[in-house]
Design brief:
- The structure holds two protein chains of two kinds.
- Chain A is an all-beta fold.
- In chain A, about 0% of the residues lie in helices and about 60% in strands.
- By secondary structure, chain B is mostly beta strands.
- In chain B, strands 2, 4, 5, 6, 9, 10 and 11 form a seven-stranded mixed sheet that branches. A four-stranded antiparallel sheet of chain B has the order 1-3-8-7, with no helix packed on it.
- Chain B is globular and about 35 Å long.
- In chain B, about 35% of the residues are buried.
- The chains are: A mainly beta, B mainly beta.
């Protein structure tokens, strides 16, 4: 029941945009997005709840389509600090445990 | 607020020994704590869900007799890797759910513990 992310890896030049997708085969209550730097714990970015909401913080935003059981993370005008591995985490309806997606390795180069 | 700590941050042990990892919620009471394992270049895999005062719920494929979880209080959960072997070497991360936050089960992660079994 691990969510599938795409792409697996992406390389961007500073200032370019990227979209990371997360797809689940199960009905979802919420989707969480995290960024993890090498050797560190994941850092929380945002959470989206059932209801098809969109959220954003500065240049990072996300959407959640509960009917399609999909979420997308949008990174605009990428910065070098955006480099890392991005994971979506999904919580199924009626549950409280989080299952992490397969991960997307993002590299931003000057 | 919502800080989770783990101890130790890294440990090296000999094969056959047991290792205990602590996970503490420092400024909130955690109704539920979770234990994850992450192998190099892989995703975090949920091992078990731990509720204070009750037995942990283990995910399929995780040996409960090998990975002992104790959630003695609302701020502390421990994971003991018994009779550790080199294949148990991994990055172990805990998280805590504050509950009732209205944030859709937001989880707060500890910094992780890197276990190396020789």
């Amino acid at each position: 029941q691990q969510p599938v992310q795409s792409p697996q890896a992406v390389i961007l030049r500073e200032g370019e945009d990227a979209v990371i997708n997360c797809s689940s085969s199960k009905a979802l209550y919420s989707v969480h997005w995290y960024r993890q730097k090498h050797g560190e714990a994941p850092v929380f970015l945002m959470i989206l709840l059932k209801g098809g909401e969109q959220k954003g913080h500065e240049k990072i935003s996300a959407s959640f389509n509960e009917k399609k059981q999909q979420s997308s993370l949008y990174l605009t005008a990428s910065q070098l600090s955006y480099s890392g591995t991005y994971f979506c985490g999904t919580v199924r309806t009626g549950a409280n445990n989080l299952f992490f997606g397969t991960g997307t390795r993002l590299t931003v180069i000057p | 607020g919502a800080v989770v700590s783990q101890h130790p941050s890294w440990v090296i042990c000999k094969s056959g020994t047991s290792v205990k990892i602590e996970c503490r919620s420092l400024d909130f009471q955690a109704t539920t704590m979770f234990w994850y394992r992450q192998f190099p270049k892989q995703s975090l895999m949920l091992m078990a869900t731990s509720n204070e005062g009750s037995k942990a719920t283990y995910e399929q494929g995780v040996e409960k007799d090998k990975f002992l979880i104790n959630h003695a209080s609302l701020t502390l959960s421990t994971l003991t890797v018994t009779s550790a072997h080199p294949e148990d070497s991994s990055f172990y991360i805990c998280s805590a759910n504050r509950g009732g936050s209205g944030r859709g089960n937001e989880q707060f992660f500890g910094p992780g513990t890197r276990l190396t079994v020789l």
